[in-house]
Queue: 3 jobs
Job 1
Amino acid sequence: MDLQLSFKEIFSVTLVLFAVIDILGSVPIVIDLKIKAGGKIQSGKATIVAGIIMILFLFLGESILSLFGVDFASFAIAGAIVIFFLALEMVLGVDIFKQSPGGDSTTSIVPLAFPLIAGAGTLTTILSIRAEYQFENVLIGIIVNLLFVFLVLKSTDWIQKKIGHGGVNVLRKIFGIILLAIAIKLFRNSLGF
């Protein structure tokens, strides 16, 4: 197999995925999920699960969706529904996602690894850029983004201390509304409005 590494392609893929994943914009959501999980989010586990999902989609995305008879629009709508309810929790201060015993482990996967980090937008983007860029460059771009995601997830305690409880509450409401808007945009785009 002839590797065709291109720093230009790697940089482009990394930037596109960075914008779509938007882990910095998700910090208030991560802090909120962390508070609900009793102060524990498994950063490594969330990053690894998100990475597995993204890399599996890089290899098998179209096959997985077609195996279940699911099109991109339906997949995006499903992700939008989860994001919509997560945003409602943040804005209204209600609990929709109930924590099960040992919830810190499951919170690290749903909704953190999926759909927040490796959501419908990220997975659809991976399939789209896979058609445009060399496979190995897309894979490296994914790995670079995962490293950044891990660093941000590990830094949430520090960020939370810096902005305080009041700051977290304000950011929670603001980003909840932004998350609602993102969910609605996903709905509209998927339905062709």
Job 2
Amino acid sequence: MFNFKEIISVTLILFSVIDILGSIPIVITLRKKVGTIESGKATLVSGIIMVGFLFVGEQILRLFGLDVASFSLAGALIMFLIGMEMVLGIEIFKTDPSAGKSTSIVPLAFPLIAGAGTMTTLISLRAAYQLPNILLGIAINLILVYLVLKSSVWLEKKLGPAGFNILKVFGIILLSIAIKLFKNQLAQW
């Protein structure tokens, strides 16, 4: 049932798509904005989104008359707005004061961790790999995501104030990635 080679392949593919290490500057920016990140909640919600989409993603999109390309465009737009926040120092994603300050679900769990790229990758993986191996690859990635989110305070201390100012460069990179995703989806249309 379990195939070690498939598990490694799925884990590495998802790791590169989720890119939690590349998201460290965004995680730190979000934590600075709201004060705390609920690592467990963000990881759990990301896992639910990924596993749910693995099983019924295409059907849900079809139910709403959507295609994967439209879904990817929506995720790219959210990533673009997060990049704008980082570069310009503005607040686009306003938090509801009555709900407490939290970015654990939006934009952290979706679209940064379990975004359109991750979800479309899961659909592709479903066609090429056995389901138990995909689920184990998701679990391994969620453990890595949790560890990175949990260590964001430590990572920020290691960067220091000067290092944090450099993070604006990552905002530009995030904008570029969002534009690339947007452009690729428009080209497919």
Job 3
Amino acid sequence: MSAPAPHVPVLLDEVIAGLAPREGETHVDGTFGAGGYTRAILATGATVYAFDRDPDAIDEGRALEAAEARLTLVPERFSRLDAALAERGVEAVDGVVLDIGVSSMQLDRAERGFSFQSDGPLDMRMERRGATAADFLNTADEAEIADVIWRYGDEPKSRRIARAIVAARPLSRTSELAAVVRRALGHRPGAPKDPATRTFQAIRIHLNRELGELEDGLAAAERALKPGGRLAVVTFHSAEDRLVKLFLRTRSGAMAGGSRHLPAAPANEPAPSFEAVAKPVRAGAEETRRNPRARSATLRVARRTVSPAWNPSIGGQYAGVSSS
């Protein structure tokens, strides 16, 4: 094994316990990043196909791939994991792990433009191609910008922020955007949370179609997992966790009876394709102290049944949301 990964993956022990990888099995790490989950799975003797849409992550993982015969890096979005595996002659896998959102590697590098902690170009592209955050903010109309900030950032003052962004155009640097948001919201230095956080999160999620990718990725994992195979998903945002929760509740038949809040499922609904393995898991105090990123993390684990994968997906709620 090569040197340890530079960033600690969230809920590592809990993810590995949920996946329960064993020697001779084949697993998918849908979000390779710095390779933390992949290394832990490899240590059990399993084979890993590690996906990442970020070319930097793939390039930096090549040394590990060269040292590990049981590792194959796949420069693809995890929404294509079933198709990409089939192209490589893999029909089904024993486990899939997805760590949703931006990685510490991306946040820590100013030139990627994901964070306002250090000034950098207003980029935010995971794949380093297509429209940048600056392109979106400098061309979209005020209503669209406000909708994105409200929907993906849970920002109640999204209209005020969008109006300020349009008035300040053109924007090209992360520090410029952060300053615009702070002025719009009357930020006081020293406040516990920077008000720009929600806006940066929202723009990143929109630009990279993250919720649509998650929805598609869950359905791809359903198709790729063999009976008894396990799916482990770590989320950091309420909208992400709601989507995963809805997917697993629907696919496990937990919504079949309906309720006073939800309509009853159709009589011809397919047989459950997943069953719950455990209750949702959140990071404990010690991990949160060591790794602040773990504070908002939620892990959900489910086991694939023998029933065929459902078609279509859970409704395409986010499938059309993209600016790239």
